[in-house]
Amino acid sequence: MLKISKKVKSTVIVFLLMIISSFAFGQSDTNLTRRELAVKAIENSHSVKIKQNEAKASHFDKQRALYTYIPKVGVKGGYAYLLNDITISRDISGTKNQALYGLEHSKNQSLAQLASSGLPPTMIGVATPLIEGVYNNIGGMVNQIPNTPSISIQDNNFWFYDAYVEMVIFSGLQAPTYAKAAEAKSEAQQAMVEQEKNEIIMETLSYYDKMAVVNQSLKVLEESQKRLDKQTEFANKAKEVGLATEYDLNKIRIAEKDIVAKRIELEASKSLVIQKLQQLTGLDQGDLAKINPELTLWMVDENEINLSNRNEIKALEHSIEALEYKHKGEQYGALPKAKAFAHVIQGGTNMTNVDAVPFVGVAMQWEIFDGLQRKREVQKSELAVISMKEKKAYAQDLVQLDFQKKKMEWQVATQMVDVSNQKLDGAKTGLKIKVQEAKNGLTDVTDVLDEISEYEKFQLEYIQSIANQRQTAIALINAMGVLNIEHIQN
After folding, report:
1. Structure confidence at residue 119 as a pLDDT band (50, 70, 90)
2. How far is CA 308 from CA 13, 71, 254, 301, 402, in A?
3. What is the pLDDT of residues 57-75, one digit of tens each?
4. How many angstroms separate the CA atoms of 168 and 66, rounded?
5. SS3 call for 99
6. C-beta of residue 293 within 8 angstroms of C-beta of residue 34
7. What are φ and ψ of residue 162, in 5° steps?
8. d(CA 220, CA 486)
9. Rounded CA gap, 460 and 216, in Å?
10. β-bridge pairing 337-349 and 86-89
């Protein structure tokens, strides 16, 4: 057999311990903090994703408005069956008159040349009527041509296409104005996304603290059970010497059943809290069940107050900005619009083909009177701006009132924690006195059980008071306008 040296053995043992410790560390790292859970809930939120998509859609509207200035390229084509023959007519009256004038001028020149040619008078007398006859005959033929001759094409199958490039060069300032309106609308929607995140944070922390309440309440029940075990031991010994009865032991058993019932209720509540946290975060229930949070007071720095940073106010401010730009855009509708274009048009029939006709140009459109439609739209957009400003003023009043209310609730909840703590100290002292009196035979088991129940009640009340204080604290931070992930205390 191979012998393994002590050095090798110790090295293997150390290596195994490192693996075990790293595995154990990885296993214990499932206790998620409040901040981590809030981040998971935001990432998993369907409502946040929907609102984010709405904000993105408004951002796309901004881009679409600016795309107005991008050239558009296209091709149009078509086919038509003509119910009548195509007739091409042209007015040639001017050309015909010019031809007649030219003939008359040529005749006169010919006669003048003949007269100066030096020919015998007999020859001139013979040639003159011939020249006049020829020119008069040609002039008569030209005169018989109609002023608007036409050609009829007997082919009813007609096709055509138009390749074009168009670009807006002036939109009457509407495109950039509507782009700014869409951008402001997107920012308003983004503010509502942040508001939705804040609501998810508050809801997640609420259930996280409920988990802490349940866990610490279960610990209170365990402590109560230990006290009852001691009382059972004490009662059994007291019964042997005649200082306790079966009635006392029965009261202890009833108290134990009461603890069992409370534990069942708490476990059911814990299961519901875990399911809700899973729905919020998408995490595995097994990992959520391992969470064991603590409850501590949440102190708030009131100097951080920034009510103008409330997401509701920011959303209204951006909405006002969007409506103001929309109002300007409606007013700019009275300005002319212009675009540049280039076309290549070609068409024909089976028997006739028209060569491609390219042309470029600039077009302008100016609607001088639209039946007062634009005026009404301008008036409506102006009223929308005024109404939104009124909503903002009303919201600012509500925000101020909400802040004062949340501040008072937090102050009251913080004071109630101190009151609950004092009541708990009093119940703890009373329990110690009763236990000591029972040992000295000055009181019975029933009184001790009542004190145990009273102390347990004040313990649970103290735990709940801290949870309430934490809820009012995060509500106050949200009302101050400064709630975000960084403000979450673990």
Report:
1. confident
2. 62, 43, 58, 17, 13
3. 988 888 888 888 888 899 9
4. 11
5. helix
6. yes
7. -140, 110
8. 32
9. 8
10. unpaired
